Amino acid sequence: MNNIFLITKREFLTQVKKKSFIILTLLAPILIIAFGAVIGLMFKANESHSIIEVVDKSGLFKDQLKSNDKLDYQFISAADEKAKVNNLKDSESLDGILILPELKNQNYDELESSSRLIVNSKIGLDTKQKIVSDISNVIKKEKIKQLGIQEVQLDDLDKSFTLKTINVSNDNKEDSDLAFGVKTGLSMILMYVTFMFIIIYGVRVMRSVLEEKNNRVVEIIISSVKPFELMMGKILGVTLVALTQFIIWITMSVIGAVVLNTGFSSLQKNIPGGNEQVMNKLDIAQLATQISHSLLEMNFPLIIFVFIVFFLLGYIFYSSIYAAIGSAVDNETETQQFTLFAVLPLMLGMYGSFSLMNNPDGPLGFWLSIIPFTSPVAMIARIPFGVPAWQIALSIVLLLGTTIFMIFLAGKIYRVGILMYGNKATLKELWKWIRG
């Protein structure tokens, strides 16, 4: 046990003292936020402003097609139609001409079949859909007016219905759409982070084992320690490195949420009556404040506990597999035929968890979060929505037992494979090592 502690300490200190680790740990959250901002700016920069001239021969659309910051309607007379169409190809400021024929005998089907949009370049699908939607809304209003319904009544018909949801399993708290969206976002982030870190740090263990094996350093090391102690020391050392990063990031996230939540509370106090209408018009910074407020209303101690436990057990479970793979091969090329067995269950758990966002308590969500091969990502994906305590306990017990068993199997492969050179391991040969 003392040897395992010494190897764990050495592996941990070697990693955390690197400048790259310190810089990445502190800057990673900022880089992620900056990356998201850059992606948003890229979408914003690629937005187009289209100018569409409209020939409205029926006079039905002139006052009802409204321009906005992305689409500008400019009405022209029918007499200019032919000249405009002929000059459209050479026009640099005009994107298209919308020709709406005369409405005869309230025949909207004929109006639709005879309408044309002539463009001089490819327009975006969203722009075309916006034009279609605007025309459809005008025709819809006209049809309703023909039925004798007034504009006020029409607005009342289009009024959406807001349904408040009270969750009796969560101290009768109201489940708003924003709160559900925050839970879904948190679920996906935690699940994806766990998936990526298990793979990244698992591969790091495998490469570390493979490097020492190829350098023949391991022959010297195992003269002083047992192969199993060396394997466990490496796994636990890298586990502590990953856990250190998580603790720092979780602390930064909670502090950020508390700061934003304080701003939310002050904002609510300073808004006089009609808070709901004012809050609906808040900008992105204030929306982030509301999101942090929703986050802090969750059972954060339980979420953090489940996240850390399942990440640690899941990481040790899969790192044992990666360590066994690293000891059984001679180069990274040969690892590809074995790493698939470690990646596939994780991918099954991650992609299967996408389907449980709309039904976290369904049978698929239950089994994915109970089966040890998928539970490290599936249970973390479910926890923001609330999971019964007995399911969490059962999943932890099964994952813990399977992890211990996997360490035992990996240790048997590691003990033989770490000293094998020039012999390409096969599944049949690995099975012999396990049985031996």
Give a topology summary.
Blueprint: H1 2-16, H2 19-45, E1 50-56, E2 71-76, H3 81-87, E3 96-100, H4 108-114, E4 116-119, H5 125-146, H6 151-157, E5 166-167, E6 173-174, H7 177-214, H8 217-221, H9 227-270, H10 275-279, H11 284-296, H12 300-328, H13 332-354, H14 363-370, H15 375-382, H16 389-417, H17 427-435
Parallel strand pairs: 1-2, 1-3
Antiparallel strand pairs: 3-4, 5-6
Structural key phrases:
mainly alpha, 436 residues
Structure description:
The protein has 436 residues and is mostly helical. The chain has helices at residues 2-16, 19-45, 81-87, 108-114, 125-146, 151-157, 177-214, 217-221, 227-270, 275-279, 284-296, 300-328, 332-354, 363-370, 375-382, 389-417, 427-435; strands at residues 50-56, 71-76, 96-100, 116-119, 166-167, 173-174. The strands form 2 sheets. Strands 2-1-3-4 form a 4-stranded mixed β-sheet. The two termini are 24 Å apart.
